[in-house]
Amino acid sequence: MHDLTRKFRDFFVSLQLTVALLILSLVLVFAATLDQVNLGIWAVQAKYFHSFFVMWPVPNSDVALPIFPGGYLLGGFLLANLLAAHIYRFQLTWRKTGIQLAHAGLILLLVGELISGLMQKDSNMRLDTGDTRNYSESFRENELAIIDKTNAAFDEVVAVPESVLADKGVIQHPKLPFTIRVKEFYPNANLTLRDATTGAGGPVATAGIGARVTMRPAPMTYKADERNMPGAFLEVVGPAGMLNSWIVSPQIGMAQAFTHDGRTWELTLRFRRFYHPFSLTLIKFSHDKYPGTEIPRNFSSRVRVRSDDGKEDREVLIFMNNPLRYGGQTFYQAGFEQGDRVTILQVVRNPGWLLPYVACIMMGLGLVIQFGITLAGFIRKRSAAQA
User: Fold this and answer.
1) Rg (the chain; Cα; Å)
2) What is the tens place of the pLDDT at every residue in 264-294?
3) Which of 157, 171, 303, 342 is close enough to 180 for a disulfide, judged by CB 3.0 to 4.6 Å?
4) Of 371, 328, 370, 373, the residue nearest 347 (C-alpha)
5) What is this structure's pTM?
6) SS3 205
């Protein structure tokens, strides 16, 4: 038992493991860089770096096989290797202070990347001049929103993630007096008006815009300037049987309404929303140019920040390289639309955003300290030799 424990310890402490992990990491980065042409940056991150194994789908089947260690697995082993080396190999002496500090910074960097990979959320907030919003919308994720509009004072919303729709099951919720059957789901779909040329291809809905349009699956896109528009064919079923059927998609751009048992409901497949305990109002968007040219000089948004509890009410100017940090979110100036009236703010929630900065400072300081200790020892030896 003692020999087994020692072998286990030696495995994680060994320099050979460090070299092997670094080589595998280089191969992973190289493969991900090549595959980025096909999948795009977000899909590559999920497939190669935010996973324990890189999976290969077997053609003409739903089976996926692990073919290479992913970023989480390599990072976890590298973190364990560094911690084991600190515990069993490195001595806590002042001569090794720089090395200890540099390795501690590297460990903190790995931990920071893990926190960012698991907890970071990216979204955007689109504001027209004078608009107020307390939510931002996801770039890539979607949700089915079932909204009870009966009460004029507020809306009761049940949000269903896109992953649930992809399972093509039955959606039930205590707040819903009916169930929803997902008959078809396409990760990316095209909607066209139904006419004599399109025929009866695709599902035909009995209510809403789905009775006038055709929905067909489309190839997935991974380009940075494009996004997939999913579509679903749903059946709303009450206690007495099916009420109606619908086609939903973010391309429709509006909710579709119906009534049931004296209550008014809306269905919409929209970009996933992240609600915040504060709101932003766009006062003015500025698009400054260099005099006599069309070359942009500055983009800025003057917004009013108001918290739900009333403790915060102030104006803030957001411009390039000067984001707003508030409520655990960071708001960056990202773009604009419609003749300089609409601003687009990128909203980032990353609890570990500060860790990479601290880690880099620790590693840099550790290298400087270790170099200074080595240099001082060299000068002392040379002085002694000359004496």
Assistant:
1) 28
2) 999 999 999 999 999 999 999 988 888 877 7
3) 171
4) 328
5) 0.76
6) coil
